[in-house]
# Entry
Amino acid sequence: MNEFELIKNYFQRLTKNNPSALKLNDDVFFDKKNKIVLSIDTYNEDVHYVNFEKPELVIKKIIRSSISDLICKSVKPEYFFISGGGNSNHFTNKNLKLISKSISEEQKKFDIKLSGGDTVFSKKSSFTVVSLGFSKKIIERNNVKKDNDIYVTGNLGDSYIGLNILKKKININKKFNNYFIGKYFLPNLPFALHKHLNKFANSSIDISDGLFADLKKLINNQKFGYNIYVDKIPLSRNLSLYLKNNKKNSLNFISKGDDYQILFTSPKKNRSYIKKIAKRINIKITLIGVITNQFKQRQLINHGKRIKSANYEGYFHNF
# Structure
């Protein structure tokens, strides 16, 4: 049973049709009356990060992945809360100083405020982060429309290379290793887009589990399919070079997650406006596909040729 089946089968009904819970089918809680938007995520060693050898980077990664849930809803994160589990090996004076410094840097970078948390003893390190913002409206999942354009911000795939370098499955050279590891720990969030996204997007999600896995969640039970233009999916120069030199398929890398870029849909009429906003705020936004009315039909098209149905499911928690 994966995490989504677990929620649907055991917990969804417990919300008692509370509209703020969004049927447990989105990344946030949204209390429209009080303008409260809240997300919560847990990060475990050996699951969400390889180890705790770089606590200063782990803490930055989990903060950024948490506030990403609000950014993709077109909401500015204001406050965050962190609960940490670990032991004396994790929380040494040296590590605590590094963690404190990193939190301070993230607060300054994203104009957010640490506002509470908890600590508990555990054999492996673990963190739970709550992010809180305020807004009159959000961009929900499951609101795509026929013929909507599909967009993604930034580049995809760098983080997955970084993860495999950390797991010692890939070794390139020091310069490229450092680049990809940096992208794994420090995702380049499209932060400034939160001010503009609700002007043109009708559905959105952040890419945490992989492009196709999250696109599936974005559409969910709506009776739509999609065409994705593989040659349009944005890759960094370094990733393109790695794929070319090692004769690798890009789809095996852009579909694995941990990118924390925004995947959203928008009517075609907004194309010029989106280009204008992207240029103004200096955020890369790429048109990569279109929503179709072919229920559950998922097509990949590369340079005008259909190559195969998308079966790159990305990451799922299984129980």
Notes: The mean pLDDT is 93. The chain has two domains: 3-134, 149-309. The radius of gyration is 19 Å. Residues 93-110 form the longest helix (18 residues).
